[in-house]
Write a structure and sequence with these properties.
Elements: H1 8-19, E1 23-25, H2 26-35, H3 39-50, H4 56-66, E2 77-79, H5 85-97, E3 105-109, H6 112-120, E4 123-125, E5 131-132, E6 151-152, H7 159-173, H8 175-182, E7 186-190, H9 195-207
Parallel strand pairs: 1-2, 3-7
Antiparallel strand pairs: 4-5, 4-6
Helix pairs in contact: 1-9, 2-3, 4-5, 6-7
C-alpha cells in the first residue's frame, strides 16, 4: 500500500522474485484491458484519465478472476488492491471462501512533495508497462529498454492529476492503514530512501 509514486510497483517486483510468487497488479491488468478496448477497459478508462479510483465492482471482478489462475495457488502479492475499505472487506470474504488469509500488509510512506517530484518526471511504456523514474536519464519518446516501444508521460502523471490522485488517496485509501493495523499484519516502511534500502526494510519486516 501507499500513495501513487511511493515505489509500490518497483518493490512488488523485487518481492515477487524473492518469494517466487506472482505480482497481481490491478493497474497493469486495467491498462491491458484499456489498450484492448474491452468493456471493462472502456469503463475504467474514464476514471483513470481523471485520476479517480476505478469503481469497486470493476476492480473486485478483475482480482477475483486473477486469483483463479494456477500461478497464484502457491501465494501471491497484491499491488494496487485493495484501495478502499469496501475492497478490503470484499477481499477478506473472497480469501475466506478460498480458505486463505493475508500474511502481511506493507505500507510504504513518502512525503507528498517527494511524490509530486517523482511522478512529474517519470516515463511509462504503454506496451509492457515498465516505468522509468526521473533519474533514469530518459526523455519522452525514447525507447523502452524492455520492449523497445516509445516512452511517454501518462495522462494521470500531470501536476494537476497528481495532486488530485493524492487527495483521493488520503480520503479513500489511507484508512486501510488503520484497518490492517487492527488486524495485526501492518508493516510500515519509510519509502523516502534508495530502492535497495527500502527493499531491505521490506524483506526484514516480512521475515520478522
Amino acid at each position: 500500500m501507499g500513495a501513487p509514486g511511493v515505489g509500490k510497483g518497483t518493490q512488488a517486483r523485487a518481492i515477487s522474485l524473492k518469494y517466487g510468487i506472482p505480482t497481481i497488479s490491478t493497474g497493469d491488468m486495467l491498462r491491458s484491458a484499456m489498450e484492448s478496448q474491452t468493456p471493462i477497459g472502456c469503463e475504467a478508462k474514464k476514471f483513470v484519465e481523471r485520476g479517480d479510483l476505478v469503481p469497486d465492482h470493476v476492480i473486485i471482478g478483475v482480482v477475483e478472476e486473477r486469483l483463479t489462475c494456477q500461478d497464484a495457488v502457491g501465494g501471491f502479492l497484491l499491488d494496487g488492491f485493495p484501495r478502499t475499505l469496501a475492497q478490503a472487506e470484499a477481499l477478506d470474504m473472497l480469501l475466506r471462501d478460498k480458505g486463505l488469509a493475508l500474511d502481511a500488509a506493507v505500507a510504504i510512506e513518502v512525503p507528498d512533495q517527494v511524490i509530486v517530484d517523482r511522478l512529474g518526471g517519470r516515463l511509462t511504456c504503454g506496451s509492457c508497462g515498465m516505468v522509468y523514474g526521473a533519474d533514469s536519464g530518459l526523455n519522452e519518446g525514447d525507447s523502452c529498454g524492455n520492449c523497445g516501444e516509445p516512452l511517454a508521460i501518462r495522462s494521470d502523471d500531470t501536476p494537476d492529476a497528481i495532486r488530485h490522485r493524492l487527495a483521493v488517496y488520503r480520503k479513500s485509501t489511507e484508512p486501510l492503514v488503520d484497518y490492517y493495523r487492527g488486524k495485526g499484519i501492518l508493516k510500515i516502511i519509510d519509502g523516502d530512501r534508495s530502492r535497495d534500502a527500502v527493499a531491505a526494510s521490506i524483506e526484514a519486516a516480512l521475515s520478522g
